[in-house]
Amino acid sequence: MAERKSDAEKYFEAVLDGRITASKKIRKLARIILPQIRNGHKGWHFDIERAERPVEFVERYCRVPSGKLGQPLKLEPFQKAIIETAFGFVDEDGNRRFQEVLVIMGRKNGKSSLLAALELYMLIADREGAPQVYNVANSEDQAKLAYNAAIRILRQSKRLQRYAHKRADDVYCSRNLGYIKPLTSQTRNLDGLDVHFAVIDELSAIVNPDLYDLVKQGMSAREQPMIFIITTNGFVRNGIFDDRYDYAARWLDGKVDDDRFLPFIYELDEREEWTEEKCWIKANPGLGTIKKIESLRGHVKQALQNSRFRPTVMVKDFNMPENASVAWLDFEEAVNEQTFDLKSMGFRYGVVGFDAADTIDLNAACMLMMRPNDPQIYGVHMYWLPEDALRDVSESGDRKERDNVPYEQWIARGLLRTVPGNKVHRDVLLQWLEEMKADYDVYTYAVGFDPWRMDDTSVRNLEAYVGKSRVVPVRQGAQTLSMPMKQLKADYAANRIVDNHNPITEWCRMNVSVRVDVNDNIQPDKKQSNPSNRIDGFMAELDAYIVLNNIMDEYQQAI
To answer: d(Cα 74, Cα 54) in Å, to the nearest integer?
Structure first.
């Protein structure tokens, strides 16, 4: 007899085989979690009975808190998958694995009802002594949404009323001395929290990260505590939401080793998908069941006619950030492991991009090359850093530690060069172009550069070397860069850009974020506006890519 499958396993299978349309991040999660459900993970195993216990509680004892009162609260497949994954992994002693669950999805997908039902489960049925359960939000009104929903569920169940009842300031369980309370930054005595379960409603609205930190710290005395976050995106930037979103993205890319964290991110993969109805379910897993599709159609129609309403729809219905600097490429797009031997490829001409720095920053050059009847674009990069940026560690700090990259290793591999002083002079570019010609017989066909960073003398020297008409200033801004960046992203996704797996270039690409205007135009930015997130290599590559595409017919004839 075949072993019974959990709803979580069936859900992730459906995501991976395409029966359920899901975002890239949900597909990544499925590829991570599905093998762990089947085979276990680092001492944790998936206990189907523990996974189903809260699901059974919700569907047996809970009634919808609004709308058709009295109707059973039936969980959708995505909700069962979230609950079973969060609660099903345990160790040999039966203690739960996950302590922080982050769920990001569009509004009106049943989050308040789900949170309220889980609060009651954790209060009444989780077999914890004196559990403290908190509704956490930025404002008292927001904190009381799920709290009041829990009260309405409680009042519709005589069975649950045997165990818990509403008091003046909380919902109290006399059998285990536990309670549910709303909690905000204005709540008194925040330092004495002993959290068993906390739900955070609309993390994106929380301005002060101290509230999240206090709840997290308040879990330390419990055996199996949990923070359960369900939120949409928001308009508060560089706060705790952006921090946890970035953490989740890196977790899904395998860059964060945290076995206690579990992210479900329902969002559009591309901003352009907001007008494609078939894509809406990526951000709205309850679409057509919990969330009415007619309502969403109305929102989209209004946003198409009213640009002021569009940011609200993009943020709250589709989880696309507004007024934010957000990560642009995922790992698969930023990294291409293909390599090539420069000497044997027979390149004749290359198009160069150069990103110069003002003082102690990274300087970058990129040469893009093509061959006849070969659709690939091949790239060679070089980087320069002033010696002053790597010395005097005790006085100015260790740049390796600040940027978290192995500069010394890159220097040893010949990928990065140092120059004396605190500034890289522009003539290093000409020296490198001469090396490319002498060592590999590759001639410079054209050069693109950011005019803001180049002095007149350096421009004249390039014009004398290449020809005045082939030294091209690339204006920086959304109007110039938006369409080429979207084309370049598509070429990254198709593995058309081959760069010999250069780690500096890949690091720069993964640091690129974009700012998006109301017309969906994009321009690059450093990730989270952090100066240590270098994007210089990408900017040099983008300049070269723009010039190459602008002169493609001429260049193809030359090669």
So the answer is: 12
Pick from 277, 251, 278: which is nearest to 265 by CA? 251
DSSP track, 11-56: HHHHHHTTSS---HHHHHHHHHHHHHHHH-BTTBEE-HHHHHHHHH
Dist. CA 15–CA 133, nearest whole Å: 32
- Mean pLDDT over residues 193-205, rounded? 93
Residue 126 DSSP one-character state: S
> Do 197 and 133 meet the contact criterion of CB atoms below 8 Å apart?
yes
What whole-number distance in Å separates Cα of residue 180 and Cα of residue 183? 10
Interatomic CA distance for residues 13 and 32, integer angstroms: 12
> What's the pLDDT score for residue 392?
46
Domains, the chain, with CATH or none: 97-265 (3.40.50.300), 331-558 (3.30.420.240)
Rg (CA), the chain: 27
With contact defined as beta carbons under 8 Å apart, do 58 and 86 qualify? no
Helix axes 7-16, 24-39, angle to 10 degrees: 130
Q: What is the pLDDT of residues 309-325, one digit of tens each?
A: 888 899 999 998 765 55
141 CB burial (10 A radius; 0-12, 13-18, 19+): exposed
Q: What distance in Å separates the CA atoms of residue 11 and residue 3, rounded to the nearest whole number?
A: 16
pLDDT, tens digit (0-9, with 9 covering 90-100), for 506-546: 999 988 888 877 677 888 876 545 556 789 999 999 999 99
Query: Is residue 100 exposed (0-12), middle (13-18) or buried (19+ Cβ within 10 Å)?
Result: buried
- Give every CB contact of residue 351 below 8 A, 6+ residues apart in sequence: 367, 368, 369, 444, 445, 446, 447, 448, 544, 547, 548, 551, 555
End-to-end CA distance of the chain: 65
pTM comes to: 0.70
Q: Distance (Å, rounded) from C-alpha 334 to C-alpha 328?
A: 9
Q: Is the dihedral of CA 165, 170, 174, 178 positive or negative?
A: positive
